[in-house]
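User: Sequence for ROK family transcriptional regulator below. Tokens please.
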Amino acid sequence: MLSAMSTVEDMRRGNLARFLELVHRERALSRAQLTAATGLNRSTVAALAAELVELGLVIERAPDPTKRVGRPSPVVAANPDVVVLAANPEVDALTLAAVGLDGEIKVRERLETTDLPSPETTVAQLADALDRWARGELAGAKFVGVGLAVPGLVRAADGLVRHAPHLRWRDTPLRAMTEQATGLPAAVDNDATLGAIAEHRFGAGAGVDHLVYLNGGASGIGGGVIVAGMPLAGASGYAGEFGQNRPGIASATHRRADDGVLEDEVSRARLLAAARLTSADEPTLAAALSGSTAVDVRDEIMRQRGILATALGNAVNVLNPSVVILGGFLATLAESDPAALVEAMQAQCMPAAAEDVEIRTAALAEDRLLIGAAEAAFAPLLADPAGTLASA
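Assistant: Structure tokens for ROK family transcriptional regulator:
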């Protein structure tokens, strides 16, 4: 049931936001389902649906003909033509996508590079993609924002990238730069934080209130934590940097980086080298590793999986999640021998904490960071649909 607002206008705007949030999360709901979910009466739900249709944010469809019991109820769906530009800059590529309010990825591009991308180059590529898509395959779409998933420390208050070490970006006003280049409101956050939110809302963590997410990418290992259904951000938005922890390595022969942190030892670059690849997207790397019979590939996977198990054991001991989700190359390590990873992790957990924890791989696969970036970009619209469009 929605809480009472101080004024009629506040109540209307709050109801409108809750209504759109429900449609966005579920992609489509009947008016009857929306009535039950909000606690509002049918006439109010009909009025809210009509207002959101007028704003161009939802569409109404005929009732499902297979549901014959009772009075047919029109279906309200998120408008697929309302989109955001989502991006994930990495050391080897910039991945871009247009993501609809209905959750579908309309267009996706991976722009590979041999040089480290500068912030200026990145925002120029964003503006170029936006222009090309708006004049081409997405000519009928309405772009309402830009979301960036960045592998580094991002200050939540203003989207300032404090330090993205692998990209060599420091104190970069990325949100302001993006807004100036594209003319759209922008949201910037840590890539793994956004991956955790995406998996919690739509992926392997849906319905889970306590989870830990670790993301393995070209720029290292990041993480996100969901506690009691809410993201754990920390005082400035920097929580979840699991990759910067000192790894526990039982055998000196397993160490590859003197005094290195977790992401120096459990490393995508080391897996690429073992597979004799210079660059690859996630599916290509996973296929190369799983299809290899080379001893050095097998040994490197086992070495990294053992160190990862220790890191997961520490996370379980500290945070007591019910689910641990692994994305990127960490999912590949897990899938190489799931039982071995679970056994090694449990051996380093307090028995009570390990009893109910489950390891899962990211259900959104290589789309997880883009979906997370899109969620950040959609957030202002979902919080105040009428007000956000009025100020655009």
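Residues 8-78 form a domain with the Arc Repressor Mutant, subunit A fold (CATH 1.10.10.10).
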